[in-house]
User: Fold this.
Amino acid sequence: MSFKFYKQGISLLLVTSFIFLSGCASIVSKGTYPISVNSTPSGAKITVKDKKGSDVFTGNTPANFKLNASAGFFAKASYSVTFEMDGYEAKTVPVNFSLDGWYVGNILFGGLIGFLIVDPASGAMWKLDTEFLNETLSGVSQGTEEASLKVLELKDVPDSWEGNLVKIN
Assistant:
C-alpha cells in the first residue's frame, strides 16, 4: 500500500514540475511557423528578408517554408516578402508576429520559469499573424512614346559626338 502512495506521489511531482517548470506557450504553441506564399500571376520570384535585412528564403511562387517566431530573447521576429516578375511592379509585404495568448497563461498557472525563460528563449511567446500570403501583382505601365529614328546632317551633330562617328561611304 505504501508503494501505491509513493507511485502516485512521484506522478504528482512530475506533473507539478512539468506545469511549473515549463511555459504555457511552449506546450501549446511553437517557435517556428509554416507559411504559404502565392501570387497572381503564379511564378513570381520571392525574397524573404528578416528585420536585419538578411535573406532567409528565396524561391518562386507558390512556395511553402518555415519562419522563426523569435529574433532573440524577448524579441519577436518580423519579415518582408518581396514579389518580383518581369512586366510587373515589385511588391513588398510585411510578415509579422504578435504576442501569443498562451504566453499570458504563464501568469495564471504560475509558470514563472516559463514566463521569464522558456517561452522567450524558444520563441513560443510569439505567434504568426497570418500563415498564408496571396498577392496580386500589378502590371508595369508602358510608356506612350514610340521608338523613332532621327537622321541628322553632319552640321547638326554636336561637337561632343564627333569622336564617335564612323564613316560609312
